[in-house]
Amino acid sequence: xxxxxxxxxxxxxxxxxxxxxxxxxxxxxxxxxxxxxxxxxxxxxxxxxxxxxxxxxxxxxxxxxxxxxxxxxxxxxxxxxxxxxxxxxxxxxxxxxxxxxxxxxxxxxxxxxxxxxxxxxxxxxxxxxxxxxxxxxxxxxxxxx
Length: 145
Known about the structure:
The protein is an alpha/beta fold. The protein is 39% helix and 23% strand. The protein is built from five helices and five strands, in the order βααββββααα.
């Protein structure tokens, strides 16, 4: 299983984006492939608004997700890297790596999370993710894992 195909990776400046915009943009590849519905994106944003920035899983990293919905067709993950940090809920939670996780059930995403954790727990890989200057560089990091 390939964790993150290049078509699921995006890179933008981040200037002028709200955290809601970043989450919506990060989900776009899955929405375009009809692997999720707009209701799933709306649910992720609503959960953040209600529960706060708990999806901030590390320095400059969010794992945006929500409970499974019928509109979610396949366990998958995307990445949006922003050149500048965008505050998630408040200034205490600046984010540059916006991972968006979709899952149709309670278990099919576990393998994705295991692979993602392998990359994110490696300090060198984290530096590479933050320093990457193109979608191709980001994709290469995940292709090697």
